[in-house]
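lol ok so funny story. i was supposed to be doing the assay writeup but got distracted and ended up predicting the structure for this chain instead. priorities right. anyway since i did it might as well share w the group, maybe its usefull for someone
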Amino acid sequence: MFKPKKILVPIDFSEYSAKAVERALDIAKQNDAEVILLHVITQDIKACYVDYCLTDDEVDKIDKRMLEGAEDRLQKEPAKFPLAKEVKISTKVVKGIPYEEILKFQTFNGVDLIVIASHGRSAIAKYFLGSVASNVLKEAKCEVLLVK
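and the output, tada:
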């Protein structure tokens, strides 16, 4: 029987990712596993808009504030879930392309299960755009649980 020890949950603070967190916490409690909440910041600060440009220092300050804000929000997330008190939880914020960062994290951190939310896109949108969940599902080197 499959008994995961490290469960990765990509989180975007939506109601969908909250369902994935709930499922991951339940699995972790049953298997004495750790849950890792991962948030990927996808926004890049544009240095120039029309005729106005930010200095490198200003861009760095905005980046730093964005990272700190995401880390603070992610640290507070477990308090929303009663099971969080019974499971070891860690958090991580990174910048990049979500599915790529999720797959990198899984590879370099010994994750045995990814519990990821599926957003309700139409079949045509998924076909043309793809999605974070479908890319993770296709390329992950471990088990993936897709939560609707």
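The mean pLDDT is 89. Strands lie at 6-10, 34-41, 48-49, 52-53, 88-95, 113-117, 143-147.
back to the writeup now i swear
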